[in-house]
Amino acid sequence: xxxxxxxxxxxxxxxxxxxxxxxxxxxxxxxxxxxxxxxxxxxxxxxxxxxxxxxxxxxxxxxxxxxxxxxxxxxxxxxxxxxxxxxxxxxxxxxxxxxxxxxxxxxxxxxxxxxxxxxxxxxxxxxxxxxxxxxxxxxxxxxxxxxxxxxxxxxxxxxxxxxxxxxxxxxxxxxxxxxxxxxxxxxxxxxxxxxxxxxxxxxxxxxxxxxxxxxxxxxxxxxxxxxxxxxxxxxxxxxxxxxxxxxxxxxxxxxxxxxxxxxxxxxxxxxxxxxxxxxxxxxxxxxxxxxxxxxxxxxxxxxxxxxxxxxxxxxxxxxxxxxxxxxxxxxxxxxxxxxxxxxxxxxxxxxxxxxxxxxxxxxxxxxxxxxxxxxxxxxxxxxxxxxxxxxxxxxxxxxxxxxxxxxxxxxxxxxxxxxxxxxxxxxxxxxxxxxxxxxxxxxxxxxxxxxxxxxxxxxxxxxxxxxxxxxxxxxxxxxxxxxxxxxxxxxxxxxxxxxxxxxxxxxxxxxxxxxxxxxxxxxxxxxxxxxxxxxxxxxxxxxxxxxxxxxxxxxxxxxxxxxxxxxxxxxxxxxxxxxxxxxxxxxxxxxxxxxxxxxxxxxxxxxx
Length: 608
Ligand code: ADP
Ligand code: MG
Description:
With 608 residues, the protein is an alpha/beta fold. The chain is built from 24 helices and 17 strands.
């Protein structure tokens, strides 16, 4: 085994031809006995970075992972690839647990997934004292940090556990969270020793990003799903109530949907999740409680029914689309109410926690700032991918060609007059009000607030009655992004002037912004068919292969994508392999899987 090259292991077990960015370096380091920290986005392929060295080294690899569903999924996938793996967590009965431990003590498993809560138990400590542990891999390592949103106190025990071990194994930590605080916490709390740190690019080229502001969000979703009948996707809503509502509507419209949120009973949540993972329900409607630990590779779209609270959450949730590397769409449906709902959450979280008032105030302020940046994402007319990557500290040019802004025709519009009215109104009202009221005033509304604040006496009142409110909002967001105005970070954000504000009143002032041309969306299809689209006879074959996969998945009791990914099936349709050798050239077909399933697929392909 030791003589084998890592490339061979990759091909033989996983059926892949080459490593992705970062993988080779992380694997080599682990093999040389050096600790590693891999920071790679969702879907980049972190699991292989410990699974490959696990197979190449003597001894057992322990994988510490926060979620039961995640372990089940990965162990299922490993067993399908012919690798002996097991998990040890609270989903096992006492009997099953002891049985698994006893097999593990006899070196029956090469890779063992274990929940962090189990590490310091007597039985487990006794087990690890008897066997040779080569690697400890810590998946979702950011769970050790209190800075992240997924903090798990049990992760803090990992350091202690490692210290107790008779021989210190190689420690490998992986996460998709890239902030400095989290990274430092991981290195310190997991006690990594001079780790090889690899941070790969955060760009996911196969994801298409779009922001839409539909009047009727439900209709938008329904139309989208009708156009993508065969695709699996997730719809994220901000509240449980909305999840219920959207779910009900979809069911009434005859769409096979499932729902997931914190208000459901454990059993129901688990069943719904399984229905989605096993492709029995194609669409999952959920709050952000759903998703960590979902490795379903064929999620073709992630629609955000509401704007989430920050870019970190957005990118993580959207990133659950297209793990298989095939094209996938990430669409955010923005509505003004989303900002208000998020503000409410920010003001009311941590109320029961033991944070001191100072710390709480600080956290809230940080969160309001993040919400602002999220809102800018919804209003920018620049490349969306560029915006995301800049947010995470990477630089990309300002054109990706695969987001709704890059595919929209814009025109440069003079907004000097609108800018003057909005900024003037803020100034004359002595910087005391928020966005909604100022827009209402400039637009000439005569509602209670406008009257109460005497804004109908403001010299800029009713200056722009003909400009629709949504446009005024766009312009105001642009003025904020360009720092002609700023928004305070209080519970009720207030518009304030900046150093730049007065520039607009100079005689030769000229401000312009990019605005979408009316009906200027370039249709995606007009750019040429998607490269990956199949011809219609291939589509028929694809459908048959999918049916076969579904049958085999039922027998093996694993999700269909674990038998073969969509990507592998599509390649089979295009290449039409006729022999064992040709089949093994398909990405994702390893030797073990070929022996198990290869001929069944060859048979169907042969009949076409
Ligand atoms: P992460 O944990 O980083 O979110 P995963 O480890 O779940 O990502 O991998 C995502 C998908 O990419 C999986 O379906 C995996 O099989 C696939 N994958 C990983 N490495 C490669 C590779 N070198 N070539 C092709 N596919 C890969
Ligand atoms: Mg992972």
